[in-house]
Sequence to fold (209 residues):
Amino acid sequence: MPRVKPSRNIPNKSPAPQGKSGFVRIISGQWKGRKLPVKDVEGLRPTTDRVKETIFNWLAPHVRGVRCLDLFAGSGGLGLEALSRYAEQVTLVEMDKGAADQIRKNLTALGSSKGLVIQSDAVSWLQGPATPFDLVFLDPPFRRELLPRVCDLLEQHGWLAPDALIYLEREKEMADLTLPASWQLLKNKQAGQVCYQLYLREVSNEADV
Fold:
Protein backbone atom coordinates (compact mmCIF):
# COMPACT_ATOMS: atom_id res chain seq x y z
CA MET A 1 0.00 0.00 0.00
CA PRO A 2 1.36 3.49 -0.80
CA ARG A 3 2.52 5.50 2.19
CA VAL A 4 0.77 8.67 3.33
CA LYS A 5 3.11 11.50 4.16
CA PRO A 6 2.53 13.13 7.56
CA SER A 7 1.18 16.66 7.37
CA ARG A 8 0.94 19.19 10.16
CA ASN A 9 -0.55 22.04 8.15
CA ILE A 10 -4.21 21.08 8.22
CA PRO A 11 -6.79 23.90 8.03
CA ASN A 12 -9.11 24.02 11.04
CA LYS A 13 -12.72 24.10 9.92
CA SER A 14 -15.67 23.24 12.10
CA PRO A 15 -18.23 20.75 10.78
CA ALA A 16 -21.86 21.50 10.14
CA PRO A 17 -24.14 20.81 13.12
CA GLN A 18 -24.84 17.12 13.62
CA GLY A 19 -28.62 16.91 14.00
CA LYS A 20 -30.78 13.95 13.01
CA SER A 21 -31.08 14.16 9.24
CA GLY A 22 -32.54 10.68 8.76
CA PHE A 23 -30.13 9.85 5.96
CA VAL A 24 -26.48 9.70 4.99
CA ARG A 25 -25.18 11.01 1.68
CA ILE A 26 -22.49 9.41 -0.45
CA ILE A 27 -19.94 12.13 -1.18
CA SER A 28 -18.13 10.68 -4.20
CA GLY A 29 -17.46 7.59 -6.27
CA GLN A 30 -19.82 5.30 -8.15
CA TRP A 31 -22.82 6.26 -5.96
CA LYS A 32 -22.05 9.97 -5.66
CA GLY A 33 -25.02 11.95 -4.40
CA ARG A 34 -27.07 8.96 -3.24
CA LYS A 35 -28.99 9.52 -0.01
CA LEU A 36 -29.58 6.47 2.15
CA PRO A 37 -31.90 6.18 5.17
CA VAL A 38 -30.49 5.87 8.69
CA LYS A 39 -32.15 3.98 11.54
CA ASP A 40 -33.02 6.26 14.46
CA VAL A 41 -30.90 4.73 17.23
CA GLU A 42 -30.05 6.40 20.54
CA GLY A 43 -26.46 7.62 20.57
CA LEU A 44 -25.95 7.22 16.82
CA ARG A 45 -23.70 9.99 15.47
CA PRO A 46 -23.42 9.84 11.67
CA THR A 47 -20.21 11.52 10.56
CA THR A 48 -21.05 14.89 9.04
CA ASP A 49 -20.52 15.45 5.32
CA ARG A 50 -17.77 18.00 5.98
CA VAL A 51 -15.80 15.70 8.27
CA LYS A 52 -16.35 12.75 5.93
CA GLU A 53 -15.07 14.79 3.01
CA THR A 54 -11.91 15.63 4.98
CA ILE A 55 -11.38 11.97 5.91
CA PHE A 56 -11.65 10.76 2.35
CA ASN A 57 -9.46 13.57 1.05
CA TRP A 58 -6.81 12.18 3.40
CA LEU A 59 -7.49 8.66 2.13
CA ALA A 60 -8.06 9.47 -1.55
CA PRO A 61 -5.17 7.39 -3.00
CA HIS A 62 -5.64 4.54 -0.53
CA VAL A 63 -9.21 3.23 -0.77
CA ARG A 64 -9.49 1.55 -4.16
CA GLY A 65 -8.87 -2.18 -3.96
CA VAL A 66 -8.37 -2.41 -0.18
CA ARG A 67 -10.04 -4.54 2.50
CA CYS A 68 -11.80 -2.23 4.94
CA LEU A 69 -13.29 -2.63 8.43
CA ASP A 70 -15.95 -0.22 9.74
CA LEU A 71 -15.97 -1.43 13.35
CA PHE A 72 -18.67 0.71 14.96
CA ALA A 73 -20.61 1.07 11.74
CA GLY A 74 -23.71 2.89 13.04
CA SER A 75 -25.25 4.43 9.93
CA GLY A 76 -22.65 2.67 7.77
CA GLY A 77 -21.70 6.03 6.28
CA LEU A 78 -17.93 5.50 6.33
CA GLY A 79 -18.00 1.93 5.07
CA LEU A 80 -20.49 2.72 2.32
CA GLU A 81 -18.39 5.70 1.24
CA ALA A 82 -15.37 3.41 0.99
CA LEU A 83 -17.36 0.98 -1.16
CA SER A 84 -18.50 3.82 -3.40
CA ARG A 85 -14.83 4.65 -3.90
CA TYR A 86 -14.09 1.07 -5.01
CA ALA A 87 -12.82 -0.60 -1.87
CA GLU A 88 -12.46 -4.30 -2.61
CA GLN A 89 -14.48 -5.41 0.41
CA VAL A 90 -15.93 -3.73 3.51
CA THR A 91 -16.93 -5.45 6.75
CA LEU A 92 -19.36 -3.39 8.83
CA VAL A 93 -19.76 -4.40 12.49
CA GLU A 94 -22.74 -2.94 14.34
CA MET A 95 -24.25 -4.06 17.65
CA ASP A 96 -27.76 -2.60 17.21
CA LYS A 97 -30.00 -4.94 15.20
CA GLY A 98 -32.10 -2.18 13.67
CA ALA A 99 -29.04 -0.23 12.51
CA ALA A 100 -27.39 -3.39 11.14
CA ASP A 101 -30.55 -4.34 9.24
CA GLN A 102 -30.75 -0.84 7.74
CA ILE A 103 -27.16 -1.07 6.47
CA ARG A 104 -28.04 -4.38 4.81
CA LYS A 105 -31.05 -2.76 3.15
CA ASN A 106 -28.87 0.11 1.92
CA LEU A 107 -26.33 -2.31 0.45
CA THR A 108 -29.19 -4.07 -1.38
CA ALA A 109 -30.49 -0.73 -2.66
CA LEU A 110 -27.00 0.06 -3.98
CA GLY A 111 -26.72 -3.36 -5.62
CA SER A 112 -23.46 -4.07 -3.80
CA SER A 113 -22.26 -7.56 -2.88
CA LYS A 114 -18.98 -6.30 -1.43
CA GLY A 115 -20.29 -5.23 1.95
CA LEU A 116 -20.58 -7.72 4.82
CA VAL A 117 -22.71 -6.61 7.78
CA ILE A 118 -22.11 -8.34 11.13
CA GLN A 119 -24.42 -7.67 14.07
CA SER A 120 -22.11 -8.02 17.06
CA ASP A 121 -20.48 -6.26 19.95
CA ALA A 122 -17.16 -4.99 18.59
CA VAL A 123 -15.01 -6.13 21.53
CA SER A 124 -16.44 -9.66 21.43
CA TRP A 125 -16.10 -9.90 17.66
CA LEU A 126 -12.45 -8.83 17.73
CA GLN A 127 -11.66 -11.78 19.98
CA GLY A 128 -12.66 -14.22 17.24
CA PRO A 129 -10.65 -15.49 14.23
CA ALA A 130 -8.88 -12.61 12.51
CA THR A 131 -8.05 -11.66 8.94
CA PRO A 132 -5.98 -8.52 8.33
CA PHE A 133 -7.54 -5.30 7.01
CA ASP A 134 -5.80 -2.51 5.08
CA LEU A 135 -8.08 0.29 6.32
CA VAL A 136 -9.99 0.51 9.61
CA PHE A 137 -12.57 3.07 10.74
CA LEU A 138 -12.99 3.51 14.51
CA ASP A 139 -15.84 5.80 15.56
CA PRO A 140 -17.18 4.25 18.80
CA PRO A 141 -19.89 5.63 21.10
CA PHE A 142 -18.35 8.38 23.19
CA ARG A 143 -17.52 8.16 26.90
CA ARG A 144 -17.65 4.39 27.13
CA GLU A 145 -13.87 3.83 27.23
CA LEU A 146 -14.00 1.46 24.26
CA LEU A 147 -11.04 2.70 22.25
CA PRO A 148 -8.15 1.45 24.45
CA ARG A 149 -9.49 -2.11 24.45
CA VAL A 150 -10.42 -2.09 20.77
CA CYS A 151 -7.08 -0.69 19.60
CA ASP A 152 -5.21 -3.30 21.64
CA LEU A 153 -7.30 -6.12 20.18
CA LEU A 154 -6.79 -4.87 16.63
CA GLU A 155 -3.03 -4.77 17.13
CA GLN A 156 -2.57 -7.97 19.11
CA HIS A 157 -5.03 -10.31 17.38
CA GLY A 158 -3.90 -9.93 13.77
CA TRP A 159 -6.61 -7.65 12.40
CA LEU A 160 -4.21 -5.14 10.81
CA ALA A 161 -2.05 -5.41 7.70
CA PRO A 162 1.59 -4.35 8.30
CA ASP A 163 0.98 -0.91 6.78
CA ALA A 164 -2.71 -0.53 7.65
CA LEU A 165 -4.31 2.89 7.92
CA ILE A 166 -6.53 3.52 10.94
CA TYR A 167 -9.04 6.36 11.17
CA LEU A 168 -9.97 7.22 14.75
CA GLU A 169 -12.70 9.56 16.02
CA ARG A 170 -12.90 10.36 19.72
CA GLU A 171 -14.04 12.92 22.27
CA LYS A 172 -11.65 15.83 22.82
CA GLU A 173 -11.19 15.16 26.55
CA MET A 174 -9.69 11.71 25.92
CA ALA A 175 -6.23 13.23 25.91
CA ASP A 176 -4.40 10.35 27.59
CA LEU A 177 -5.38 7.63 25.12
CA THR A 178 -2.54 5.11 24.81
CA LEU A 179 -2.22 3.57 21.35
CA PRO A 180 0.05 0.81 20.05
CA ALA A 181 3.66 1.94 19.59
CA SER A 182 3.60 0.99 15.91
CA TRP A 183 0.82 3.50 15.10
CA GLN A 184 2.24 6.72 13.64
CA LEU A 185 0.00 9.80 13.66
CA LEU A 186 -0.36 11.21 10.14
CA LYS A 187 -3.28 13.62 10.36
CA ASN A 188 -4.93 15.31 13.33
CA LYS A 189 -7.89 17.66 13.34
CA GLN A 190 -10.46 18.91 15.82
CA ALA A 191 -14.03 20.06 15.24
CA GLY A 192 -15.76 21.33 18.36
CA GLN A 193 -15.53 18.61 21.01
CA VAL A 194 -14.52 15.90 18.51
CA CYS A 195 -10.99 14.90 17.49
CA TYR A 196 -10.44 12.88 14.35
CA GLN A 197 -7.10 11.39 13.40
CA LEU A 198 -5.43 9.16 10.85
CA TYR A 199 -2.70 6.69 11.83
CA LEU A 200 -0.36 4.50 9.84
CA ARG A 201 0.71 1.17 11.28
CA GLU A 202 4.42 0.75 10.61
CA VAL A 203 5.46 -2.84 11.14
CA SER A 204 7.92 -4.74 8.97
CA ASN A 205 6.79 -8.00 7.44
CA GLU A 206 9.56 -9.78 9.32
CA ALA A 207 8.21 -8.53 12.64
CA ASP A 208 4.76 -9.96 11.91
CA VAL A 209 6.01 -13.50 11.26
The two ends are 19 Å apart (CA to CA). The chain has a mean pLDDT of 86. Helices lie at 49-59, 77-84, 97-110, 122-126, 147-156, 205-208. Residues 97-110 form the longest helix (14 residues).
